[in-house]
Structures are given as C-alpha cells and as structure tokens.
Write a structure and sequence with these properties.
heterodimer, A: mainly beta, Immunoglobulin-like, Maltoporin, Chain A, 2 domains, five-stranded mixed beta sheet, 7 helices, 7% helix, elongated, B: mainly alpha, Serine Threonine Protein Phosphatase 5, Tetratricopeptide repeat, 9 helices, 78% helix, globular
C-alpha cells in the first residue's frame, strides 16, 4: 500500500510538471533584417523551434523555472539568454551578430580573374575550361586571351595586357617567377607556353593592381598554383598529329606522397607533309621534353618538386624583303631546364609559411643567314646585309628563393610578409662578342588583408626592391578595397605602383638606367552567382621612365593606357551550355624605344572581343567548343632614321585589317583498352579569315610585307589515354 | 529498508522517464521526418533532431538525423542554395562524427552531401567532388561493407556518370540489385538506427528496368 502511495505521488510529481508555457519572439540581424530559419531552443531540453519567413517564432515548453534560451543561425554568433518560465513572458526580440567568415566575406577582386580553385563558387575558369576552349589547343595563354584585358597578338608569344608589351606580363609558379615561360621566340610566329595546364590546380590572371607579393611586372601577373597529390596512381599515353607522349604517376599506399615523370616528343614533319606551310622549313620543328615530380605531405602542409627539361630545334627560310633573289634563313636550337621546389606549412598559432626555390637555365642558339636561290650562304658588304648575318648564343640563368609568412590576426584578417632574392645571370654572345650581365635582386614585402565586416575589406601592402645592376631601390605601395553591396555583388578599387627592370638587351648596352614604372588605378564591379558572373572594370594606367633608345638610351619614355572591360559568363540560361563574352576597350599611347613621339603601340587594338561557347552532349559523350575572337585593326609604323635631320621619323604608317578568328574543338570521351580516353580534334581559324598582324618594311622603306600566320589554319587530332593503376574500382566491381 | 526501497523506486522512475524521454523524442522526430510534406516541414524535423542532440550531448543518432533531414531539404526545395544547405548538413554531421567515429552510415551521408554539392555545377565540380564522393563510398565500405545504403547512394550517383567514366545504367542496375539483396538481410543495430532506403532502391531499379 505504501509503495502504491509512493508510486502515485511520484507520478503526480511528474504529471504536475507538465504545464506548458509559451515562448515567442523574433530573430533579426544587427541591421534589423529578418533572419528566417534561425534555431531557437531551451538549453538542455528538446523544446524549441525555428524562426519563420518573417523572422518570428513561437513554441510551447514544459520546462520550468529559470532556463537558458539559445538562439543560433549558421554564420552568426550564438546568443544565450536567461528566461524565467515561472513568470509571464513577453516576446523575445533577439539580434544576432554576423560572424566574419571566409565563406561570406568579400574578397578583393579588382584586376584579377581566378581560374581553378574548384571549390570556390566565384571561380571564373577551371582546368577543364582551359582544356575545352575551342582553338586554344590547351595553351594557358591562349585561353587567357579570351578574357578581357588581353590583346589578340598572333605574331609574338606573351600576354599583351592593357597597353603593355608582352615582356611586361610575368608568370609565377608556386610563388616564384618563371624566366622563360614560352618556347624560344621565332620572328613573326607566336610560340606556345612551356607548361601544361594539367600541372596547375589554380590560375589567377591579374590584369593589374596585384598583390605586393609579386613584382617586376608592369602590366600583368599570371599566378599559377601547382596541383597537390594525385587522386590515384596513373599511367597515361598520348598520340596525336604532332606529338607522342607517355607518363607515369605513382601515389604511395598511405596517400602521403607521390612521384612521377612524363616524356613527350613533338615533330611537325608529318603534319607539314599534309598541311602546306607558308615558309620553307629546312629544320622541321622538333621538341623533346621530359618532366619529373615528387610531392610529400608533411604534418601541416606539403613539399613539392617539379622539374622539366626540354630541347627544341627548328630552321626556316623566307624570301628576303630587301632583295629579289636572296632568302632569310633563321635557325634555332634551345635547351631549357626548369626546377621548382616549394614547401608550404601550417606552423600553428595562426602562422603559415610558404617557401619557394627555383632554378632555371636556358640556352638559345640562333643562326641567321642570307642565302641565295641554291640555299648557299651569302655574305655581303652593305649595312642591311650585315644586320641579317649573325650568330647569337643567349644564356639565361635564374636562381631564386622566396619566403612568405602568413599570420592570422583577428577573425579572418591576415598579415603577410616575406623576402625574395634572385640571382640572374645572362650572357649573350653576338658574333663572338660576349656581353655578360649579372644581377642580384632583393625584395622585401608586406601586406595585410583586413576584413572589417563581411561587407568591407582592405588589402594594404608595400614592396621594397633593390637591383645590384641598377644600384637603385624602389618602394611600391599597393592598396585595394572591396565593398559588398548585396549577395554576390561587390565593388572593388585597386591602386598600385609597379616597377620593372629594363630588358636584358637594353642593359647589355648600358647599365646607367633606372626602373621602368607603371601606376594602376582600377575600379571594378562584379556580380556573381554559382552559375553566372558579370563584371565590368575601368582602369587608368600611367607609364613613366620607359626605356628610350634614341637619342641615347635613357628612362625618358612615358605613356598611358585607359579603358573599360566587360565580362559575362553564363552556365544557366541554356541547358548544358556554357558561354562567356568578353569585351575590352583600350586607349593607349606611349613614347618609348625609338618612337618619335606618343604613339599607339603596334600591339594595341582599340576594341577586342571574344565569345567562347561550350556544349557537352551527354548522349554521345562529346563536347563541342567554339571560340570567336575579334579585334579592330592595329596600327603599324615604319620608324626610320633620317640621316639629314639625325632623328627617327615615321616614314609610313597605317592600320591593319580587323582580326577575326573562329576556333573549334571537340572532345569525345570513351574507353579504349580499359583506359579513360579523350579524343580531341581542333582547328583554328575555321573560316580561313585573312589575318594580318602588322607589316615588315624593307630597309629603304619602299616595300612592305604583311605579317601573317605561316598557315591559315592549324589542325590537331589527338588521343589521350589514362589508366588508373589503383585497381580499386575493378576490385569493387568484381566483388559485386 | 523502506527508505531504500523508496529511493530505488524514485531512481527507477526517473531513469525510466529519462529513457522514455529520449525515445519519445526520437519517436516524435521520426514522425516529423515521415510526415514532412515540404522543405519547411523537413527543416523543422532537422531542427527538432538538432535540439534533441544538443540536449542529449552524447548521442550521435539525433545529429545524424538532423543532418539527414537538413540534406533532404536541399532536394525538396528546388530553389534552395545547395551549397548553403550542404554547409549546414556537414556541420551537423561533423558533430555526429565526434561522437561516433568511422561509422558506415555517416560516410554514406557524407557522400550524399557531396553529391548534392556536385549537382550545383557538375561540369566544373565533377573532378574534385566526384573523387571526394567515391572516397566516402570507399570509407563506408571499409567500415561496413554490408550496409545496403552504400550501394543505393553509389548507384544513384553512378547511373548519372557517363559510361566512359565508369558509370551508366548497367552499373546502376548492378548496384541497386546488390543494395536490395542486402536490405533483405539487413538488421539495424536498434530501432533508432538508420534503416531507410529499401523502397528507394526498388524504385530506382524499377526505373532502370523500364
């Protein structure tokens, strides 16, 4: 009986506790904007709810006495508030403070296009984009040319950005500068980049206003970040109309390290047999290239090493413009060895380290001759004949070390600083005359990324440089501001001073020169969603201290560039289709080298536009890619020395015809010999438009000759195979 | 003696009460999960499981279901920002992982969340997210190869992958069949442990056999 009483009484106690109290209120952010979907709970109980679309909430609870109300929402700081449930409750109006988070925070975007970095929604271009841009033949620079800011220059390699010459754009791999990013120059024929896009997981194409971490580039920085460990071990092979290749990549069982190598052989002889070329190749272009790498995962980072060795040779003959009977014969041999070792490590307590070491050596031998109709060398006595008969051996060695530290200060704000040292050794032997050049270059830099709120961010930095050959210091300030105006929408502004040493061929003549200088001002607006992005950018660039070669070699050159650029990419509107449109307007003039005054340089067109279109048809596993590029005509000049007045004058000038290029490529995915296979076919200038990049003049100025591509089109057919050595997939399938 | 008995009695009732409170709570959560008609209902179920989990502190299942329900809102609302939904699902699932290490069910859900993010932009995300998804499948198999849900979600993913990349309808069929066979012998560790998916696997296979 007693037990029964106890039982009943304990039940009674339990039941008596079940009286409900209603809790209600609303949730907003600090700017009084409604927060829907916030979670409201009584700590330690199951009672609670989520805020509705008007930010309001209401729920009933059986809890009693003094409790804690917890209000939370992802991306906001959680608020805890004591409530007394025994009293009459008024509505709780809770305000949540936004956390500054990398996901939400605005990032400075003025002047730069990020490519790769697959996990970021703001990605503009990825590795896949590089591989599938019609007519670009998987050349990184060719793809970057479809973005605003870059010129459609087809007769020289390099990126001509916003009125800047090709040498004003530099490439960086894992932080360190690349000395010879392209295969050696051949007169009037643009060469490919040395590095395969497959090496890189991320590419940032900065058309100005870039970070203090990078220097010695007046107009543009292409910042390439190499891939980490591969996803699995792999064997690959490729065969195409111009090359053969094979490679191996081994991933350690513990997935902590990997190593691999590749070899490629390119020979254009078979191709030239089928497709007629406009010049006479007496040495058909032939390239050998080998590369090797290893990557080791460390405690909180990674060590990566990459090396590539390449040799190339070619020789071509063209009719000489100064005579009816002679020919110009140009022969080239090149050897290039590139090494890059990088180590990034999280050191704890918000510290991060990036160490980059690189060494490269490049040897180019050029032999230029005049030949007669029987292709026999001709030596002459006239000045123009002497100019066209020479041998040039050029050695370029670059060793560098760069150390950068990152320290996370408060929230996601970061302080970054470091040092860089480069030793450059260049030697040209021109007709037996040796011109060596050595430079010790040192730079210290510091930069702070300050996120005041999720909406407002600053990037403030500076770079101090010294070059032993110029015996001069320079200090380059950099500043960028970004302000978020809505979801995915932001304004950015960037300002910076950029210095660059004069080119080696100028320094070989005199070292009494200073740095060339450019100042950038950029204003940018960008609106992005996951599948669409729009940006408009206006810039003004001032050039100072450019190198003049007449009347003496000095730094009196000046210039400017201004313009506006548009970019629109859309992967949403048309099912399964991806396209982007870019447009650049450029107004630029400069007085440099032997220019008699301020002129629009011959590599600058006023209007440039590209349309890139990609469509993958899943049914047939085939992708179709088109790229159409257009540019208005570029100016050309015959700048001639007038002996009577002892100065350079413009003897003749004009404008080339507009440039049109429609490139096409298709890739078919299939399985061949149990490998994943991609079959690629591509062609440049499908429509066979007449392309003229400029004119060459005869010495006397009476004849001019259009600079055109050596063949109207370039065709490519290739097959790329890869086998995963890791048989996991097979094992699983067999077990089913 | 009486005092002792009384104490035991009180203790027993509180314990029973506590036990039933969790069970009842989970039961209510399952009810909400089952009856959810809209993304809002599903979100409410997720929030409820999250509250249960936060209150219990040492149980992984409510966090698992909170993540699962939240993940489903991403499919139920076609306009949902799937990256945002996935961020929340992952956050919840990570909390489950702290309490329950290397569980096949958790790996399966990780795969589902990754695939949901992949669908936002398959062309660009395929490489990174596809590899991540198959990595989760491997981990799930390592933890418990007889979990039928592994083959269900693997099949759902693979049937949409081009044949050239090791996917396609035939691969899907094999996987769904395997899943259904395993469902026949599958016994969840408790009534509360994950047991969903049998109907889905059958529907998927039927759709492929049409």
């Amino acid at each position: 009986m007693k037990y029964l009483i106890i039982l009943l009484s304990s039940l009674f106690i339990l039941l008596s506790a079940r009286a409900q109290v209603q809790v209600l209120g609303s949730v907003r952010d600090m700017k009084s904007r409604i927060l829907a979907g916030a979670s409201i709970a009584i700590k330690g109980s199951y009672d609670g709810t989520t805020s509705d679309s008007t930010g309001h909430f209401s729920f009933k609870t059986f809890e009693k006495g003094i409790q804690t109300l917890v209000v939370s929402n992802i991306g906001y700081k959680t608020v805890e508030q004591q409530i007394d449930l025994s009293k009459e409750l008024g509505p709780f109006n809770v305000a949540l403070k936004e956390e500054i988070s990398e996901l939400k925070a605005v990032t400075v975007t003025a002047g730069s296009f990020e490519a790769g970095d697959k996990k970021r929604a703001a990605t503009v271009l990825s590795l896949l984009d590089v591989l599938t841009t019609g007519g670009a033949n998987a050349d990184i620079s060719a793809v970057l040319k479809t973005l605003p800011g870059a010129q459609q220059v087809g007769d020289q390699e390099g990126l001509f950005v916003r009125g800047g010459a090709g040498y004003e754009a530099k490439q960086f791999i894992d932080g360190t500068m690349v000395n010879n990013p392209f295969y050696s120059s051949v007169p009037d024929i643009a060469q490919r980049g040395r590095f395969s896009p497959n090496l890189f997981k991320g590419t940032v194409f900065s058309t100005g206003g870039y970070s203090a971490l990078y220097g010695q580039a007046l107009s543009s920085a292409v910042i390439l970040e190499s891939i980490d460990l591969p996803e699995q071990s792999q064997v690959n092979a490729s065969i195409s109309s111009v090359f053969l290749g094979a490679g191996f990549q081994k991933l350690d069982k513990t997935k902590k390290s990997s190593w691999g190598f590749n070899y490629g052989y390119t020979n254009l002889w078979p191709y030239f047999q089928i497709v007629k070329q406009g010049v006479d190749y007496f040495t058909v272009p032939e390239f050998h290239s080998g590369d090797a790498n290893f990557r080791i995962k460390t405690k909180g980072g990674m060590i990566k090493y990459y090396t590539t060795f390449a040799t190339s040779s070619l020789g071509l003959r063209r009719p000489d413009i100064d005579s009816l009977v002679l020919k110009d014969a140009f022969g080239l041999n090149n050897t290039n060895w590139y090494n890059n070792l990088s180590w990034r490590e999280f050191l704890g307590k918000g510290w991060k380290m990036n160490l980059g070491l690189s060494y490269s050596t490049d040897l180019t031998k050029i032999n230029q001759q005049l030949q007669d109709q029987q292709n026999k060398p001709v030596t002459g006595s006239t000045a123009w004949m002497n100019l066209k008969t020479y041998s040039l051996d050029n050695t370029a060695n670059l060793s560098q070390i760069k150390l950068v530290f990152d320290k996370r200060i408060s929230g996601i704000s970061v302080l970054r600083f470091g040092n860089e040292y480069q030793y450059a050794y260049n030697k040209s032997i021109y007709n037996g005359l040796s011109l060596p050049l050595k430079d010790h270059y040192y730079a210290a830099f510091s930069e702070a990324d300050i996120n005041i709120t999720n909406e407002l961010a600053f990037k403030l930095g500076g770079r101090l440089e010294h070059s032993s050959i110029l015996k001069k210091w320079n200090l380059a300030p950099r500043l960028a501001i970004a302000y978020k105006t809505g979801p995915g929408a932001q304004f950015s502004f960037a300002y910076g001073d950029f210095y660059q040493k004069p080119e080696n061929n100028q320094l070989m003549l005199t070292t009494q020169l200073g740095y060339t200088k450019a100042t950038h001002y950029i204003l940018n607006f960008m609106k992005t969603t996951t599948l669409q992005s729009f940006r408009v950018e206006a810039f003004y660039k001032k050039y100072q201290d450019l190198v003049k070669t007449f009347p003496s070699i000095n730094n009196d050159g000046t210039g400017y560039a201004k313009g506006i650029e548009l970019f629109w990419r859309d992967r949403k509107t048309f099912q399964g289709m991806d396209y982007w449109i870019s447009y650049s307007y450029l107004d630029t003039k400069r007085d440099y080298l032997n220019y008699p005054g301020q002129l629009q340089p011959n590599f600058a067109a006023n209007h440039t536009a590209s349309l890139v279109l990609k469509k993958f048809v899943s049914k047939i596993n085939t992708g179709f890619n088109f790229t159409y590029s257009y540019a208005t005509g570029r100016p050309y000049y015959n700048i001639k020395y007038e002996t009577s007045n002892a100065k350079y004058v413009i003897a003749d000038q004009g404008k080339t015809i507009d440039y049109h290029n429609l490139g096409f490529s298709m890739n078919y995915l299939t399985t061949i010999f149990k490998s994943y296979a991609v079959i690629v076919a591509s062609v440049t200038n499908v429509l066979g438009s007449n392309q003229i990049f400029g004119y060459n003049y005869s010495q006397n100025g009476l004849y001019k000759e259009a600079i055109t591509p050596v063949a109207p089109r370039f065709f490519f057919v290739g097959c790329f195979l890869s086998w995963g050595v890791d048989r996991r997939q097979d094992a699983i399938n067999n077990n089913l | 003696m009486k005092k002792i008995l009384f104490l035991i009695m009180v203790l027993f009732t509180t314990l029973a009460n506590a036990q039933s409170k969790y069970e009842a709570g989970m039961g209510k959560g399952f009810e909400m999960l089952k009856s959810a008609q809209s993304a809002e209902d599903m979100g409410a179920a997720s929030a409820f499981f999250e509250r249960v989990a936060d209150a219990e502190k040492d149980k992984w299942l409510p966090y698992y279901y909170a993540a699962y329900a939240n993940h489903l809102t991403g499919w139920m609302n076609p306009k949902a920002d799937k990256d945002k939904v996935a961020a929340k699902s992952k956050d919840l699932l990570t909390k489950a992982e702290v309490l329950e290490k290397d569980n096949s069910e958790i790996w399966v859900l990780h795969q589902m969340i990754t695939v949901q993010q992949l669908t936002v932009d398959p062309m660009t995300r395929w490489q990174a997210y596809g590899a991540e998804a198959s990595d989760y499948i491997d981990k799930a198999k390592k933890a418990d190869a007889n979990n039928p849900r592994i083959y269900l979600v693997e099949g759902q993913f693979k049937q949409n992958v081009p044949e050239a990349f090791g996917g396609g309808k035939e691969v899907g069929k094999v996987l769904f069949t395997k899943s259904i066979e395993l469902f026949k012998i599958f016994k969840p560790a408790s009534e509360m442990h994950p047991s969903w998916g049998k109907d889905q696997a059958e529907q998927m296979l039927a759709a492929l056999n049409k």
